[in-house]
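Forwarding the complex inputs:
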Amino acid sequence: MNDIFLWKQLLEGEDYAYTYFYRTYVDVMYSYGLKFTPDSELVKDCIHDVFVKIYANRKKLGMTDNVRRYLLAALKNTLFNHFQKSVNTYNIDCVEPVFDLEYNAEEQIITDKEDQLQAKELDNMLNMLTFRQKEALYYRYNEGMKIGDICLLMQMNYQSVQNLLQRAIKKIRKSVERGEKVNLKLLKKI
Amino acid sequence: MTDKYTTFKAEDFVQDDFFIASTINPTDVSNKFWTRLRYAGAIDGKEEIIARKIIDSLQVEPETLPNDEKTELWIRIKQSNKTFQAQKVRRLRRFLYSVSGVAAALFVFVAVGRNFLHREQIAATSAIEQTAPPTTKSTDIQLVLGDEKTLNLEGEEASITCRDEKVVMKSSENGEKTEEIKTETPFNQLIVPLGKRATLTLPDNSLMTVNAGSRVVFPSIFDKDKREIFIDGEAYIDVAKDAARPFIVKTDHLTLEALGTAFDVNTYRQDKVHYVVLVEGLVQVSHNNGSKTILKPSELYSCDANDFSVKTVNTHFYTSWKNGVLQFDSEPLGNIILRLSRYYGQTIDCSLEAADLRCTGILELKDDLRKVLEGIALTAPIKIAYNENKYLITNILKDNTPMYTEEH
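Prediction (whole assembly, two chains):
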């Protein structure tokens, strides 16, 4: 709500609103950008480009219903443009960078050995998910976005995003439940 | 009670926007909501746990940009903006050169610039800031109604409530008094001398806790489009929500504009550094130097007459005084002594070497000043002396340094 008010202020040329958006979203953007490339300098360059572009065009920009999504989408586009330009230096067919991240609940402080094993199994399964699934899951369960916003970021329709998420959730549920059963068996043994 | 969730399986929970929000950003309200459903048996507990486990398994640690890199990147962005702006002007000028004369173009630029500056300067002062403090000094809490009546309140603490053109005053010594206020009189003033404290409920129900040595100027009735007050000193303000009328606080260097929020303002005229700490909500701070900043909760805005800075803090350290407690984390003893001297209304001299000592901990202000100072002396290497109505604090380890005095 406040974001939308401040976005209006930004469009009217108020510098403090611009500063506010940088301070509020630079970490979110940085974290997000690193999912497409491990190159943190590149991510910083792209954040730079996004903010400079917003400043240069601030009087011509349109309204948005979600500044967070707007900034992430802008960063994704900027990163993609950059990859497109440097496609010659990358010796690959695929121009699009892919969204990837590594799940490692295993590394969190779990003292119980069985739990550790279980977490490792779950991580293995999660890391086998497709890039698109990981991307959609990240928006939904890390960024807390609504399906509608994910559609805009991934340029997919509502039904496809929902299917993508549902299929992933089904797999995760199975893995979580397997873990539960192992626990039960152990309990009975004792 | 909601029965929407009765038949939910884990798959349904993880697709529910509210359930997701409650899991990744839980609040007191959402925690209570789900606990209630669980106890009432209105949800399948097993399925809910699986749903939570699914969402938990998907959490990844966010990466944060180190503070220095954040600042560096910001400076780079600002630099690029400047360069870009300069290019635009150059391009525009080149265009104008080719179309018509140079003089006209330059003249327009200068004129716009002048006008803009002029407008900013006019907006900076308003009537409420011009209200002069009363000429007579008193050791009692004073309420000056309009230009005419001055009411003295004995005792260390007082509470004042303005409502329906009446003002109700309560103090520890005087009991309760009610006084009519004339709405046509311009502004009322509350003066809290050193060693005293007061709470003030404004006509819109906003609640202020006013610290020792402070002056607040406020109208009997707020305007239709804004609520404006002036503060010299320190106050904690819990602003009543009223989206149609912004709450505006004027101080020597700043103008704060808030809708419903809670924040602490510390702007003693005799202090060099003034500050504002936001506890909740959103506040816009405009400095007399023309800069504007939006503060988010837990941010500390500190400034002097020319410049300002913002950082994230534990707000408790800045607001605990209103509950009769001072809490510090690695704070120079000099600052603590200044606060104590205001709170108790006593002069305390402190050597430079003692003022530099860093202190961490909590001070209860219920006891008398001597006990509080002795409490500090238990852990800090200081010596306390008392003569001629003054406390004198020196550093035992580094003696014989020049003294500096707090003037009030």
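Residues 96-124, 401-408 of chain B have pLDDT under 50 and may be disordered.
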